[in-house]
Amino acid sequence: MRILRTPEHRFSNLRGYPFSPHFVDIDGILRMHYVDEGGSSSQSTVLMLHGEPSWSYLYRHMIPVCAKAGHRVIAPDLIGFGKSDKAADVREYSYQRHVDWMHSFLNQLDLKNITLVCQDWGSLIGLRLAAEQPDRFDRLVIANGFLPTGDQKMPSVFKLWQAFSQYSPWFPISRIVEVGSARNFDKEIRRAYDAPFPSPAYKAGARAFPKLVPTRPDDPASEANRQAWEVLKRWEQPVLTCFSDGDPITRGGDRLLQKLIPGTRGQSHQTLSGGHFLQEDCGPEFARVINQFINDTPIIS
Q1: Which of the residues 138, 247, 254, 281 is marked catalytic?
Q2: Of these residues, 50, 71, 269, 276, which one is catalytic?
Q3: Among 205, 173, 196, which residue's Cα sits nearest to residue 95?
Q4: Greater confidence, 39 or 195?
């Protein structure tokens, strides 16, 4: 595996991202970066998982709000994104490998009492983690995300996105995130989202993700996701959906989650104003929803 590491100077003086870097080694060859803010001995660990094609910078408006409330906040960069290492060959990425890499991350940090906050691919990976290591998780917050098995019909806009990611010679990371948000970015925000990718060679992970979403019943990840659903359909711990009102890809997914997962019952589910990347559009409000959810749902071990 040929590994690329984004030069640190690319991340210098990013506005709104003052967080100290932390790293763990994955499989002895990959370095994964994460933000670790707030009290390390807190009763609650808020694990914020980003999706495609963003990185922990996406959560910059939310990390301080949750940390100030007394929670330990962990926001990793998935392999292929942010300050984490990037495999240069798109064939090195698979759904299962992403899940395995994140299992290694959880185990090395020995994270417990986790409130999972997941969106986009953060949900595809995070819900697998919760189903496969349920004892580490106290609560789930699912935002504009789902756990597909390939048995569901995918919206046409997603199929267009898949084709674009595979065949377009132009793959502008910051522009993709901006289009998925409800507001315009200035040059500093664009610089931050482009920072992990000095050249097209660094974008293999970002290119890989759309085609790894299970879209047919015999997809390589379908069976593992079905097994995860068997756990989630019995999940009694608190689950909150916090979707936005302006996402054409995941619209309606919150209602299906509420129907399928027992832990959603009786929760104060939220619909916030924003696009697919609601962390950009209403990050502080989203963070306050998370804090309130934790306060309202004490876990008795």
Answers
A1: 247
A2: 276
A3: 205
A4: 195
The per-residue pLDDT for range 132-180, each reduced to its tens digit, is: 999 999 999 999 999 999 998 888 888 888 888 888 889 999 999 999 9
Q: What CATH number does residue 62 fall under?
A: 3.40.50.1820
Q: Is residue 286 situated within a structural domain? A: yes
| pTM summary value | 0.96
Q: Which residues of 257-290 are buried (b: 16+ CB within 10 A; e: fewer)?
A: bbeebebbeebebbebebbbbbbbbbbebbbebb
In a domain, 301, yes or no: no
CA angle 301, 266, 50 (to 5 degrees): 70
Query: Which residue range forms the structural domain that includes residue 289?
Result: 3-296
Whether 121 maps to a domain, the answer reads yes
For tokens 């399928």, name the residue.
260
Q: Is the pLDDT of residue 184 over 70?
A: yes
For residue 45, is it within any domain? yes
- What CA dihedral angle connects 99, 103, 104 and 108, to 10 degrees? 150
Task: Tell me whether residue 120 is one of the annotated catalytic residues.
Answer: yes
Cα dist from 41 to 103, 105, 132, 135, whole Å: 21, 18, 24, 18
At residue 247, what is the residue type? D
Active-site position among 120, 138, 219, 254: 120
What is the C-alpha separation between 135 and 131, in angstroms, rounded?
Answer: 9
Query: How far apart (Å, rounded) are the C-alpha atoms in residues 196 and 122?
Result: 18
> Taking a C-beta distance cutoff of 8 angstroms, is the pair 32, 24 a contact?
yes
Q: pLDDT at position 301, please?
A: 58
Q: Per the structure, how many domains does the chain have?
A: 1
